[in-house]
Design goal:
Aspartate Aminotransferase, domain 1, homodimer, alpha/beta, 4-stranded antiparallel sheet, 12% strand, Aspartate Aminotransferase, domain 2, 11 strands, 7-stranded mixed sheet
Chain lengths: 489, 489
């Protein structure tokens, strides 16, 4: 990787790191470099061979990155990438983010760059309307939205707001009595946020789900848990419901959970990181039914709405509840705009103080493409996933483990005999199959375990993926199936 | 601002948001747009007039941004921006970040894009060596570095690690007995991190500083506070020392504080967000003396090392202490590389799971410019600030309030009479002066209050600032001084 001082511009005389001509030349070169990368994207193995360190070379910079970094990368933009959830991207987002980087405002409060805050508020209101959130989440109604980095931050911030709300009601005592709730399908970041916030592990309820409920959290299970806690002198404080879980895109019934939680005064947050983007399409919007009764909802356009990493939207119904729990007021940031009470200071809506101008890329994606294109984008991915699902279902050796809801297909090779031994064999064979397919270098997919089964996750939706990639991917699974069984028997 | 659906590309047929030719054309246009912006940067008022909403227009996108967003922005890249701390930028960082956005890997763990993790570890080791951190902070010695968004995240993560360390030693009980320490000059994000982590306000010690100590935290004050807490049955857990405070770039004596804290087993973190970058120059490195005895240190190259927002480096001496307090292990992320124990999974070093490829821009800044240029960049800003300080000192009506240490000058007009009334008048006059200067639109500076005095902060160092800008700025202050006095008397 060369060394720090083998640099391409070592003269300290007249160092001007933002010289316009230099920038123009380097930036245009970078763009051509990126275009060449995209053109050849399928020539890179999706996921690299296991090697725990990058090797050492020394050459001019872009070619150095190409020679040294590319071979060790997992290429998330490769259309044969079907792992995790895809991170989608677009020209509008790339250009918006480049411009935001060039402007480089640090808009911690309104005054530090008013239009940055205003554009963010406007864009969040637009997106709220696009996925038809209730009016209560708009700024005009006392709610509002903010751009954060990831769902983890949204959960942590709303958890802190919920703690304050519940403790104030209970008389500011008993932080050790607060209990939080989620299902066994909730993203691990929920447990991590609880750990960071100092919620004792004994007060975190991870409620089991079942295959017959398609791995959704049952409202009666939540109610029973809250009743038991209340009877034990504890305070139900926070529920994290998920619309589109990471394992299998299970959807927790938002209305039922909100109803159950309301009796106990707990804050309800909806994590729609992945599936929230699908709600730009009318046919998916019903998954958010009941959201008019929750306190907050987050979704990540960096997952499925073409903005690139990182971009997570958080909306709250009562913005004062969030900001009073996160606000700071140091002398060096005091200003008349803040004192007027008429402006939004986003530092009080997030963990950090400084923040990037993330709104610009989201704004440009929405403004440049518009509703019809965004719906078309979601629809196209869902159609490709449906095609994959149908190919799996048509092949008797395979089964779709849970019905596909969005663009993730959870499937496996069926067990060859009934009972625990048969299941264990199937787990081993499916694990082997996934390894073989990934080792081919042709595609990359990942796994999960749900309902005790080892399941292959096939997530459709990198921006460049087309039907032909999905078809070839399925053929790879199908063709390697027999060998996988043989290898484990 | 138009509306969502007045978009420039509304046809849902054949929507391909990452079409290479479209991207090439739009990206090159964006770059030319940015070059024009930089060329005309001084024609924009640094800080806009107060207006609580952006107005409505509708036109093609980049010109829409120019017409609607620019007039409402505070222009952080304007060379006449002297507010807060500057956010520095460079061509290498912009190109590196653009490439990172185009690659768009979500490198939460090693396997999800190995080279992204490897490059980050390498780059953090390089920067540690550049500012001569002790070997204990390098990966080879069991330490290591990570890129986070901001100092807030670094403080919160290390606070969580400290809590686990101290509670384990104390026998896993008594979270309500943990006490944390900082000075009254520590950034407000410290108190916010404590609030998020659930540290009770009664257990947060904000220790006063004094002008005669140049607003540094005295080790004997820390020791006395810890002794009193220990005598009261409490557990000293965490100290946040600052090298270069936000108000006045005060430097807490790292060695003395580490010595005091070591008797009580508290974790010591050094926040060198701003001044850490200066330590690439040998003449400033002594401010970190004693860092060999602390547990963690963070600095933000987005402040003063040309990387653009956001980019905060956190190094820890014992990486296992950090990762065991933040790790998660969901089934869908399990993989052989993680199980081998031979790789770094950065999701266990931060709050979130997903993460941007921030290392690329920091790598490109260091690799492209090298030590000599980075030193020259810091030296040039310091020289300009020294020039400003000398102009202030040469003018009898003004005074430098605390000696300049880096590139921030804290100054004011002197009181015209001795005593409290004279101080109050001076506060009013200086406040008025700053308002008048900022309202001129020519420059932007901010204020603080230290030692009870209203003080103007003049922070030199946007990437495009030259000596002539500093000179004109000083003339503005000098020329408006008399009128400011008159206005308040």
């Amino acid at each position: 990787m060369g060394s720090l001082d083998a640099n391409c511009n070592a003269s300290p005389r007249g160092f001007s790191p933002l010289d316009i001509d230099d920038f123009r030349q380097q930036a245009h070169q970078t763009i051509e470099f990126i275009c060449e990368y995209y053109k050849g994207i399928e020539s890179h193995p999706v996921v690299p061979r296991w090697s725990p360190a990058i090797s050492a070379v020394s050459s001019p910079m872009l070619s150095e990155v190409q020679a040294t970094v590319f071979p060790g990368m997992t290429h998330w933009t490769n259309p044969n990438f079907f792992a995790y959830f895809p991170a989608t991207l677009s020209s509008a987002a790339l250009c918006g983010d480049l411009l935001a980087s060039a402007l480089n405002p640090v808009a911690f409060n309104w005054l530090s760059s008013p239009a940055v805050t205003e554009l963010e508020s406007l864009t969040l209101d637009w997106l709220a309307q696009l996925i038809r959130l209730p009016k209560g989440f708009l700024f005009s109604a006392g709610g509002g939205g903010v751009l954060q980095a990831t769902t983890s931050e949204a959960i942590l911030c709303t958890l802190v707001a919920a703690r304050k709300m519940v403790l104030e009601r209970a008389g500011h005592d008993g932080a050790d009595k607060l209990v939080v709730y989620a299902s066994d399908q909730t993203h691990s970041t929920f447990a991590k946020a609880c750990k960071i916030a100092g919620i004792a592990p004994a007060n975190i309820r991870i409620i089991p789900t079942a295959r017959e409920d398609l791995f959704s959290l049952r409202p009666d299970s939540l109610r029973a848990a809250m009743e038991a806690d209340t009877a034990g002198g504890l305070l139900p404080a926070y529920v994290c419901a998920t619309v589109g879980t990471t394992s299998s895109t299970a959807v927790d019934p938002v209305a039922g959970l909100a109803e159950a939680a309301s009796r106990f005064g707990a804050w309800v947050h909806v994590d729609a990181a992945y599936a929230g983007s699908a709600c730009v399409c009318p046919e998916f919007r019903h998954h958010l039914d009941g959201v008019d009764r929750v306190d907050s909802i987050s979704m990540s356009p960096h997952k499925w709405l073409l903005t690139g990493l990182d971009c997570c939207c958080l909306w709250v119904r009562d913005r004062a509840r969030l900001t009073t729990s996160l606000s700071t007021d140091p002398e060096y940031l005091k200003n008349r705009a803040t004192e007027s009470g008429a402006v939004v200071d986003y530092k009080d809506w997030q963990i950090g103080t400084g923040r990037r101008f993330r709104a610009l890329k989201l704004f440009m994606v929405m403004r440049c493409y518009g509703t019809a294109n965004l719906q078309s984008h979601i629809g196209s991915d869902v159609r490709m996933a449906r095609g994959f699902e149908e190919m799996v279902a048509a092949e008797p050796r395979f089964e779709v483990v849970v019905p596909r809801r969005f663009a993730l297909v959870c499937f496996r090779m069926r067990p060859r005999r009934v009972g625990a031994d048969g299941e264990a064999e199937a787990d081993a064979a499916n694990r082997r199959l996934l390894e073989e397919v990934n080792n081919s270098g042709g595609i990359y997919a990942t796994h999960t375990v749900i309902g005790g089964m080892y399941v292959i996750r096939f997530a459709v939706g990198t921006t460049l993926t087309q039907e032909r990639h999905v078809k070839v991917a399925w053929e790879l699974f199908r063709d390697k199936a027999e060998a996988a069984w043989e290898a484990v028997q």
